[in-house]
Amino acid sequence: MIRAQGSLDTRRHPRLGTLERTGVCHLVRWFFLTGCPAGGLVPSTPEAGDDLACELIVWWGVHNGLAPSTVSNYLTDVNNFLAAVRPSGRRMYGGGLAPCAEKLMSILRHDPQTKLDYKPRYKLALSTDMLRAIVASPKVDGGVKAACVTAFFALLRRSEVSKCYNQGLGRAHTKLTRDDVLFVFDDDVGEERLEVKVTGKGDIYNAGKMRVVGAVEGDELDPVALVHGHFDRTHGLEREDNAAFVIETGPRAGRAVTGDDLSRACKLGAAACGANPADYASHSLRIGGASALAAAGFHDWEIAILGRWTSMTFLRYIRMGVEKLSGAAARMARTNLRALLRR
């Protein structure tokens, strides 16, 4: 899909070799803000540059097996980015995609091979039984247990609770520090609660949000007790980057809990409950927390606030229980549709 005046030699342009490992925002910034992008990829006009950037994004999305809807969202982000870097401050093509992007997406959406090759990447929701299996397992470090339970009840992403590679900084980075986790005694209810200062994906809606997590008295999943115990056991231990959650014992003692540590724990918990470990990873904690809130009767808008979602995309994370699904047919059969239509 990429039209270039010369070949894309990654040895001559080493930054091209990292495209597959970077996010779309970084890719767009690289394209528009470098003085000589990729040597031969020099657009003659802004419109030609838009076309080329869109082709690059579509190629990147198809190459990485992304769904057409996801690629379309990325292309809209490109348009938003153009509005930010151009003097006019306005989107060139309204609120949607650039004209060339629309043409590319129409081809991509109706390409049978794309639909055959696409494999959904969504992970399943971690259940409370699986979380209990993690907490009970001697194979999981105490710091990882505390991080998993906090991520579940606070609806945190792996990048918000553990050490993950930050593309923007070009290094591993820990957002959640020990100073961001507080224990506060609530006089009104007579119990201690956990307050977590969350630094989200980077926009103004997720920056510095405080997430309050209450205690679960008499339960092994009590997040307040688990985090308290973890901090007591690691008191005096030198923490890597002052990370909130660190490995308690072994050669990695004091090192920050990583996203891979969370994923391994989720897979172990799934396997202990007879599920396929391949369907679970660190994001299963956030999905599981949202699904548990829905099952507990919380409204969609409440879940969106608790999870810091600014759109309705979180609805695709919520998973319904098998019990509810199995009873759906009986409830549908008892519905008098004609009576409903007369109202």
Offer a quick outline of the entry.
The chain has 343 residues and is mostly helical. The protein contains 15 helices and five strands. α3 runs antiparallel to α4 (99-109) and α6 packs across α10.
Description:
With 343 residues, the protein is mainly α. It is 44% helix and 8% strand. The protein has helices at residues 24-33, 46-63, 68-85, 99-109, 112-117, 128-136, 142-154, 158-161, 223-233, 259-272, 283-295, 300-306, 322-326, 328-333, 337-342; strands at 163-166, 171-174, 181-186, 191-198, 209-213. The strands form two sheets. Strands 3-4-5 form a three-stranded antiparallel beta sheet, with helices on one face. α1 (24-33) runs parallel beside α3 (68-85), α2 runs parallel beside α4 (99-109) and α6 (128-136) packs across α10 (259-272). Residues 1-23 and 34-42 have low confidence and may be disordered.
Radius of gyration: 24 Å
List low-confidence stretches: 1-23, 34-42
| Overall pLDDT confidence | 75
Give the helix level as a range of percent.
40-55%
- N-to-C CA distance: 54 Å
**Biggest beta-sheet profile:** 3 strands, antiparallel
Q: What general form does the structure show? A: globular
Tally of separate helices: 15
Structural class by secondary-structure content: mainly alpha
Total beta strand runs? 5
Strand order in the sheet with the most strands: 3-4-5
Question: What percent strand?
Answer: 5-15%
Q: List the helices and strands in order.
A: HHHHHHHHEEEEEHHHHHHH
